[in-house]
Amino acid sequence: MSGDVAMRALGDNFPAPTFDDPAWVTPKPLSASKVAIVTSAAIHTTADERFSQGDTGFRLIAREARDLVLGHWSPNFDRTGFALDLNVVFPIDRLEELAAEGAIGSVAPRHVAFAGNQPDDVATIIHDSGPAAAAELKADGVDVVILTPV
What we know:
Elements: H1 3-12, E1 34-39, E2 43-45, E3 58-62, E4 68-70, H2 80-84, H3 92-101, E5 106-107, E6 110-114, H4 123-139, E7 144-148
Parallel strand pairs: 1-5, 1-6, 1-7
Antiparallel strand pairs: 2-4, 3-6
């Protein structure tokens, strides 16, 4: 069984959390919303600490940062797209275009990167680093998040 087939089989049977009382809000129109990116591509700037195996932390990526490194080291991840165009995993240029067109209100000043290669127990992200990252985005006035899962 190839690594890709094995990973797909694992993902097909991976349990997803359920929430008894999920929050619900009426969102602003996109044309008035500040939008941020959350990615699991483990990207970071050259000055940031690299992601390590099982790293449940996150890195804040400034809006203007372009010296980004792909820290995702899974052997099942094809890096070609990232090498050709950062926007494949971090669509910052597309967000800038949408803001210039008025389709979205603005682009957030900071974005968040996690490592996608997590242990089976993601409790630390659910209870610690996830809420901490959300608090950073909330402090920036973010209304909408685009998730780019890798």
